[in-house]
Amino acid sequence: MTDVTRNATAALDASVPIRPDDVSSGYSVLLANRQSDVQLDLTRYRRLVGHVLAAEGVRRDASTAVSFVGCSEMAELNELHMGHLGPTDVLAFPIDLAPAGGAADRCEVSNAADPFDGAAGGVLVGDVVVCPAVAATNAAAGENPRRGHDGTVTAELDLLVVHGLLHLLGMDHDKPKHAAAMREREAEHLSVLWATP
Prior knowledge:
It is a single chain. This protein starts with a helix and ends with a helix. The radius of gyration is 16 Å and the shape is globular. Helix content is 40%, strand content 15%. The protein contains six helices and six strands. The longest helix has 19 residues. The strands form two sheets. It has a four-stranded mixed β-sheet with strand order 1-2-6-3, with helices on both faces. By secondary structure, it is of the alpha/beta class.
């Protein structure tokens, strides 16, 4: 368990409980809100995480954590893990997964638990960390134009959560063809969300 997951687990008082009729049912989705810059609808993000995991074929007993953090915490994580100064919008930390040699669609498992294999035991997919303050700046600047993206902070946060989850599942944007594949998957997931009132 990473520090991010430990922090998310400790912050369950800021989490929204899973409802049986929710698409996230079966998944362990830990949500933590450790920032005060942007008001969040944690139910929305729990459902979004469940949708993405289900649509990507991840088994129902998989666990993941999404933490929403302030600029200073994100800057610390960005410097520690990426070697970059200042806050970024999203970071993803795969736990039981390892990149599959540049594959743009799936990743290999670094231990016995495979998130796509229903026969194996539980798996920790990983942690996604999002900085809503940076998302707000990106939204205002039109940083991530997408079909259906209405320019709001909520749409930007939706995009960042999906982007981080796809990173956990082995997708990357390190080459033009990988970036195109990742953008296409993002669009597919977000079109379902954004088409729903």
